Amino acid sequence: MDLLNNTKVEKIRRPIRVLQFGEGNFLRGFADYMIDIANEKGCFHGDIVAVKPTESYRNVEYFRQQDCRFTVTLRGIVNGKEQQETRIITSVADIVHPYRDYKRYSEYAALDTLRFIISNTTEAGIVYDETDWLELEPPRSYPGKLTKFLYERFQHFNGDVKKGLIILPVELIEENGVQLKNIVRKLGKQWGLEAAFLQWLEEACIFCNTLVDRIITGFPTEEAEAIWRKLGYRDNLLVTGEPFGLWVIESERPIEEEFPLHRAGQPVIFTDDQTPYRLRKVRILNGAHSSFALASYLAGNDYVLESMKDEEIRGFIDAVVQKEILPALDLSKEDMLSYAASVMDRFENPYNKHSLLSISLNSIAKWKVRILPSILGFLEKKGSLPACLTFSMAALIQFYSGEKFRESTLIAHREEAEYPVLDDKEVLEFFCRHSQEEPKQLVPCVLAEETFWETNLNDIPGFTKKVTGYLKDIRSNGMRNAVRKVN
To answer: I want to staple 177 with a disulfide (CB 3.0 to 4.6 A). Which of 207, 265, 275, 388 is the partner?
Structure first.
């Protein structure tokens, strides 16, 4: 079977307008896909150069063998119906590895047509590294690379404010653009770069905060051969994901005329405040996930889709979203209901094997951010505790009830089978010390741990008593019976 390359699909050469730090699954199935459609519909007219942000050579050879072509397949449930789309992406014109060819990478800083920088270097990518240096080729950190790249552009164009760039980080951290800009500014000062460059950063460059939402499942290892046969070619960069997508871009100055992906029908929203969109995603999508995942796992399920097909767990999920999360939000009712319906479609995606154990990672921090605000909001509005969200705390305590460590992992049990509990070392050590205590001692102890919650949860009226009762029921009668009662 032939490999996908430029003989399989016609490529229209366009000016390079985007430099993209990262070449992984998410950017290929999200930003590259959207730009490809915008190019096809005549809304953007610009190509991408992908930059490998780490020393690893992974994927680079595949890009070169395939002339930077790859296939994106989006599969899932939309408005209750199964939907599939397959598209060969031609928006990436080149890939460069700055560790192996710094000169060619650096030359893009002088490219007149360049206007945008997109990045996905993981949450750990936007960090300040005080040991990074301007003289390195390239600097170690992503902010270091970006600072030097911008400085070289500033020098080449003699500080021309028309040659500034629009930076669109999609790393999943809050205020990603603000944080990235602060680090770039800090490195510029640390490296002794002239004040004119720092002023150019302010006047010529726009650092946007973004929020992205699409589940990308990546390379479909188990299905690859079957998909290749159906496509009629081999594609080592094949990426799969869900149809749902959302890209919220918050900028201090309007950029939608320069980056009009929305005009190509893409789910891109430009705003001066992304807070409502982040709140909606964290509370509804992430909050629902965290509220049922641990209980569902201890009830015998392994995946989100299994949970949706489990009548008792599905009833719990519906109650959490419709009766407890939505009433606690001060957002448009129509918007919330529409988004909640799309979340249910996504949870029922038959192509997305979303592991409950993967959702369980760092559940303490997730519960604090995703669930606690909904409990407090519900209590304020209704004057009572939301039963299912309160139950989720009991489920969390039971899930974390391990007795021994193995290779820095707390080991707990679902019936006779072991499972790993993954969280910060201090969290796991706390539960290893306390989790075998009786609920009446254990629950107040957990709720009082302000290093977890930044407050004492025992102060929430009636919360300690409710959680204690739920945990007793779980331990006496099993998770499934306890879920059945709370519903």
So the answer is: 207
Report, in this order, helix, strand and coil percent for the chain, each rounded to 5.
50, 15, 35
Mean pLDDT rounded to a whole number for the chain: 95
Quote the crossing angle between the two packed helices 479-486 and 287-298, to the nearest 10°: 140
CA distance 304 to 65: 37
| Side-chain-side CA neighbours of residue 411 (13 Å) | 8
DSSP of 322-354: IIIIGGG--S-HHHHHHHHHHHHHHHT-TT---
Name the stretches of the chain with pLDDT < 70: none
Nearest to 39 by CA among 216, 266, 319, 331: 266
User: Which pLDDT score, from 0 to 100, does residue 273 have?
Assistant: 95
Q: Which two tokens stand for residue 347?
A: 């949870």
Tokens standing for 28?
């290929």
Nearest C-alpha neighbor of 341 from the set 324, 359, 318: 318
Judge residue 145's burial from the number of C-beta atoms within 10 Å of its C-beta, 0-12 exposed, 13-18 middle, 19 or more buried. Answer: buried
Q: Is 84 exposed, middle or buried (0-12, 13-18, 19+ CB in 10 A)?
A: exposed
189-245 pLDDT per residue, tens: 999 999 999 999 999 999 999 999 999 989 999 899 999 999 999 999 999 999 999
Reference 158, options 114, 110, 92, 202; nearest CA is 110
Residue 79: the pLDDT is: 82
Contacts of 56 by beta carbon, 8 Å cutoff, 6+ apart: none
Query: Which long-range contacts link 183-192 to residues 24+ away (Cβ below 8 Å)?
Result: 183/126, 183/127, 183/128, 183/143, 184/143, 184/146, 184/147, 184/150, 186/128, 187/128, 187/132, 187/143, 187/144, 187/147, 188/147, 188/151, 190/130, 191/133, 191/134, 191/147
Residue 420, helix vs strand vs coil: strand
Q: CA–CA separation, 58 vs 66, rounded Å?
A: 14
Token code pair at residue 246:
């959302």
pLDDT number for residue 308: 97
